């Protein structure tokens, strides 16, 4: 496999400031934003300049640490934690990362709030990078016989630590076996597959074809893929999975075609406090993301729009939940809890 020697990065930390690759400008421009605190980090998360469940957690962790460097006080800690946690509602990593850094800062005491927060944010980032490598190996074991993989949205380095989640599994599979290729769904309405996954796969030298979301079910029925691999934004305690809208349809199509439907994500996306998928808050975004394309209206003015950013795939449709701590096949409450509890 021909792989770009330079690893793809979406988040860079220099010890004081955070730089994020503005994903709203890809694939045509590679623009780096310099973030300095909670306010601009929350804004970058809301407008999807930085995205992907693990990466928004990483960014928020650094955002809180930077805010405390500028304003080392309990008041700043609480205000920044609330601001960052509320930037987007569906992915569990965001609130969990903020809570982790907040707890570390509180435990350190008033005089060392900022240094403790910085250290914890760096540990969280390192944990996500390590999780990516480990889950990639587990996922490639699960899909050892697969060669053509259908995937949805973007689950590479632009979305998470290391090489990604679902895309990291594909990269590891390609490193082990010849002939691995990808069917990448465009992923309406924001085209994260067309803009971001296609950009990553091109950089990495992985053969792929871009398809419209509506073509996936027919191609799966015709046997043109061996498996479906997606990422996840939140895994409920019973194994239900929230992911980019359109994922549920791929799971149904995979089940009808008798193909594996694999969800890959770090255990930081498991939320044992959420009992099932019905309890997951689904973010509704601006209708213009649907009624416009590239800023150009594609629907009549005033057209009513529904724009849920995520959907929920029931655990019963998931062949395997792949994490850095191992794999839960046919995930359920017991196996998800067991994964979360592993060291």
Automatic annotation (TrEMBL):
Q: In which pathway does it act?
A: Amino-acid biosynthesis; L-methionine biosynthesis via salvage pathway; L-methionine from S-methyl-5-thio-alpha-D-ribose 1-phosphate: step 1/6
Q: Which residues form the active site?
A: 233 (proton donor)
The site (Transition state stabilizer) lies at 153
Q: What class of enzyme is it?
A: isomerase
Q: Does this entry carry the keyword Amino-acid biosynthesis?
A: yes
| Superkingdom of origin | Bacteria
Is Isomerase one of the keywords UniProt gives this record? yes
As recorded in UniProt, its EC number(s) are 5.3.1.23
Q: Name one Pfam family in it.
A: IF-2B
Please write the reaction equations for the catalytic activity of this protein: 5-(methylsulfanyl)-alpha-D-ribose 1-phosphate = 5-(methylsulfanyl)-D-ribulose 1-phosphate
Residues bound to substrate: 51-53, 88, 192, 243-244
Q: So what does this one do?
A: Catalyzes the interconversion of methylthioribose-1-phosphate (MTR-1-P) into methylthioribulose-1-phosphate (MTRu-1-P).
Family indicated by similarity: Belongs to the EIF-2B alpha/beta/delta subunits family. MtnA subfamily.
Q: How is this protein named in the record?
A: Methylthioribose-1-phosphate isomerase
What organism does this protein naturally occur in? Baekduia soli
Q: Give the lineage.
A: Bacteria, Bacillati, Actinomycetota, Thermoleophilia, Solirubrobacterales
Q: Which gene encodes it?
A: mtnA
